[in-house]
Amino acid sequence: MCGIGGLITDGTLFCGVSQHLEKLQESLAHRGPDDAGQWVDDIGVVGLVQTRLAILDLSEAGHQPMTSLDGRYTIVFNGEIYNFQSLREDLITIGYVFRSHTDTEVLLALYAEYGEEMVSRLAGMFAFAIVDSQLRTVFFARGPMGIKPLYLMHFENGLAFSSEFSALLKLNLISKEINVQSLQQYLLFGSVQDPLTPIQGITSLPAGHTLTWEIGIRGSEQPKPKCYWQLHHPNTLVPKDKAIAVAREAIEESVSRHLVSDVPIGVFLSGGIDSTALVAVMRRLGVKNIKTFSISFDDIEFNEGDVAKRTADHFGTEHHDWCMKAADGVALLKSFLDATDLPSIDGFNTYCVSKLAHDNNMKVVLSGLGGDELFGGYPSFQKVPRISRFHRVASSVGLNGIVGRMMEFYGSRSSIQRAGVCLQMPPHISSAYWAMRGIFTPNEVDKICQNYISGSPKTNCAGMEIGWELGNPPTRLDAVSEMEITRYMVNQLLRDSDVMSMAWGLELRVPFVDSRLVEKLLSIPASIRLRAGKRLLIESVPEIPKWVINRPKMGFVFPFENWAKETLRVDFERVQSDSPVPLNSWFRSWALMSLNHFLTSNGISKFRKDVNLSASND
């Protein structure tokens, strides 16, 4: 796990490559406190940089950038390949010789042997770049589930890339013009959807995609990213009587994969089902000396500490609890905002519990993130199909238009207004999902955008579907699960979890967000897999105690609203007074607060009249 970056130029870059690599390395230092390295090719047009958090093979043999024995290939790699040992053994049988016991060196050998097709052999979380000095190409790859980010910046002299978006902005190689489409997406959904980013000229390599960049070729002539993996619902489904066994085996295999490490592994333990299931399976697999970490509060409305402590005692873990006071939370707000890479309406909880693990000398922790998306744990699994059914009924009798307009313009809450907009659109599960998960209505977005970009175009409701095409979900519940995974989880939860854990030099692993696990679980019918209360997960891990199962779902929530309002009262008052639409809920106010902080901290001007409104991150 680490931070990676680099530049591919045409040889005319002012100040050359090395000076920009220094800036990238400095920006990514927090992601890899154990080691750092740079590499520049023989003619000075391609450079790579890495900062390392040592997890596998802690020796100097794991230093990056790493070059193959024959000198042809050089790699920078962020992530972990959990099946690297078996891959290594296979490569040895066909003649490869290894200098280290790292997964990084295995990636080099795999690419030399199989080329782009090597990604299909990997089990893990990854983002990497491999320079082929002979063919003059750079091969980029991002893992199937998008756990590790990879941002690409197109500038006049070539391409730069990085694990973090803000690191690219600090290079000052492009003008910082707001991408209008991404601004609209953020205001509609609360996060920018891949491959867009807030700034024109910077994209995110989508999850499950690769890109081969040809050195010396103009950006407009470069190949487009290729998709090598996406969610797929098989035609042949698991029989009901085998569903529990299939799920149990898949969960155990995934947890086992995620235990590959040369340093101790801990667990973020809340009072919920998902993290408890991880601890239970780890114990079942024979893992000893498990360290667990949780946050508790004096406020009973938010406190899960007692349940987590009881669960830790039950499984015999070494438990660490931080009973956070308001003063603790307030003191962390500034550093949390500074750690934020992209505007977001979430992330503070992960930031705090990551600090707790870091302060207890941990480098790797497991999180239960992904359990709700795969096993039907969110209210969306009940509400979205309900909204969709009502939409179809209203449309069939011709009442959707007038009822929708009344709800949009006279609704007392933003959720009612969004439902009204949904009714005015063609009946589709995606619009019903947005009605529940969204932030602002399209009309509100148009008014807010005028505060940021003079003359910005109207929001196209069809834009809700951009980059959000569904695969082949056989049922509404499957569709909701797919949207929760590809939209909410990938573009918000995983993005925030990566940035906030790496801010403390901590590797966060998510066993439920594993492509091989997902493939097996999608073979289980939605009527079984997505039952309310995550029944399949509970049945598959019967070791989960009853006090966890019977406890009402809370989620990993913090009294963040109260703390932020105390510390940032003036900022809240300003954003509310400046807003052209009512901010009648906490999360709507924070969405604009986070956006303003992102723009200010990165030196991005509002009211840009020279922005190319038709441009996008193509």
Give an overview of the whole structure.
- The protein is α+β, with helices and mostly antiparallel strands and 618 residues long.
- The protein is 42% helix and 15% strand.
- The chain has a six-stranded antiparallel β-sheet with strand order 2-3-1-9-8-10. The protein has a six-stranded antiparallel β-sheet with strand order 4-5-6-7-11-12, with helices on one face.
- The radius of gyration is 24 Å and the shape is globular.
- The two termini are 29 Å apart.
Share of residues in helices: 40-55%
Strand order of the largest sheet: 2-3-1-9-8-10
Q: Count the helices. How many?
A: 24
Distance between the termini: 29 Å
Q: Which regions contain 5 or more consecutive residues with pLDDT less than 50?
A: 607-618
| Overall spatial form | globular
Tell me the radius of gyration.
Answer: 24 Å
Mean pLDDT: 89
Tally the beta strands.
17
Beta-strand percent range: 5-15%
Main beta sheet: strand number and arrangement?
Answer: 6 strands, antiparallel
Structural classification: alpha+beta
